[in-house]
């Protein structure tokens, strides 16, 4: 089931008892964070605050804050179902027969079947606020943590167009509100928006137009965070997830398109010649404060909204937080794409305490000496996997979703000097420990069983396992033990 708007999803959550409306007056400064932090860590509901101090607009948060809600948001019961759809689509073994070939066509078309559609009129433009009346402080913008540099729009879906190709990008980047019509634009150097900005500057363009969507249908909201290759637009991917095209509308003052069912849209530009502005510090999803740094300013030249818009926000900090479930969805959905390049990959897992880029477990069907190292190098070469600081490779029968099992297996199997490699590469901008800013070292751990042709000539012990016969016997007598 695809949701066409945020409202449709919120209604669904309400019916499921997964949306709690809070009418008590709350402060967007720190108080909301503490409420959300306690709620998300106890797998509690999405929260709709109707009475935020200083704003007439309600704020919703924690909508993706459990595995169940993240799955519902993408119209599935189980996130692996999406991965399965992708892997069926990507299974490109061409059949011999003509009929077989024809039967493949619909599968191949699956991704392109739901391209976004541009409509003329949209509810997200019911209200249009012109440049001189823009006042971002009218929105319930939150200040999350005590040392934050100010209030931040935390669910801004930032739309730009590649100045060379015209391909659209939508990335989820935080926006620190600097004054009533200016924010900082925190697109990190490796991300799509930053690339567009760099290209615009190189081409001598004075401005890069930007639209920021705050709240849309949930599949598009999620797609904004997904690590898609530059050539695949988030709107197309959202259409694939929803199995229904995303309707777009042209912005009022910039040449960009936004989802017709958006709640709030900020239209404006980033000036390529302007001095960068100090952004941060910000209590980040690493669980530490990101230091203040310089980023471009986003000038808001118009705001459009629905008649009764809802402002969406999130809280990031020490896990578990809402963004962990978004990252988990990415892990599951993108596994078949990783397997396309690394077919020996059985599964991978990024435990929440590893903040995605700090730790990746990978299980492989080991075929030749040194295979674990090939997989580490392959993963480090895959899109945003380039940020992975530590990769631990184990054999195919290990359930990497169970981090305790994965560590147990790997730690038993390693002789550190022999099985650990150090490499170098880009680090996530948020990594505060890297040797240089966004560049540092990586560690790969080969936790697989070692082979004679890898130099291990002593016998390798079996894992302890009870025989099926005894398991069945104990099953059949279990009740009689009175346990
Ligand atoms: C809640 C949340 C906040 C994020 N904030 C930022 C941010 O401020 N800057 C950034 O570059 N990436 C941020 N990200 C990560 C990007 O959205 C993510 O890497 C995405 O794939 C970027 O898309 P792009 O490659 O199209 O730019 C955030 C992700 C989430 C889930």
Please outline the helices and strands.
Elements: H1 6-15, E1 19-22, H2 31-41, E2 46-49, E3 59-61, H3 67-73, H4 80-90, H5 98-109, E4 117-119, E5 127-130, E6 152-153, E7 156-161, E8 168-172, E9 175-179, E10 182-184, H6 192-202, E11 207-214, H7 218-223, H8 234-242, E12 247-250, E13 257-259, E14 264-271, E15 277-279, E16 282-283, E17 289-290, E18 293-295, E19 297-305, E20 311-313, H9 322-341, E21 345-349, E22 359-364, H10 371-380, E23 390-395, H11 403-413, H12 416-419, E24 420-426, E25 439-446, H13 468-477
Parallel strand pairs: 1-2, 3-20, 4-12, 22-23, 23-25
Antiparallel strand pairs: 2-3, 5-19, 6-9, 7-8, 7-11, 9-10, 10-19, 11-14, 12-13, 14-19, 15-18, 16-17, 21-22, 24-25
Helix pairs in contact: 4-9
The structure holds flavin mononucleotide (FMN).
Provide a compact summary of the structure.
With 483 residues, the protein is an alpha+beta fold. Helices cover 27% and strands 24% of the residues.
Word description of this protein:
This protein is α+β, with helices and mostly antiparallel strands. The chain has 2 domains: 6-313, Electron Transport, Fmn-binding Protein, Chain A (Pnp Oxidase, Chain A), CATH 2.30.110; 342-454, UbiD C-terminal domain-like. 27% of the residues lie in helices and 24% in strands. The protein contains 13 helices and 25 strands. Strands 5, 6, 7, 8, 9, 10, 11, 14 and 19 form a 9-stranded antiparallel beta sheet that branches. A 5-stranded mixed beta sheet has the order 21-22-23-25-24, with helices on both faces. The chain has a 4-stranded mixed beta sheet with strand order 1-2-3-20. A hairpin with a 6-residue loop joins β7 and β8 (168-172). α4 (80-90) runs parallel beside α9 (322-341). The model has no long low-confidence stretch (mean pLDDT 96). Bound molecules: flavin mononucleotide. The site of flavin mononucleotide has 19 residues, from β8, α6 and α9.
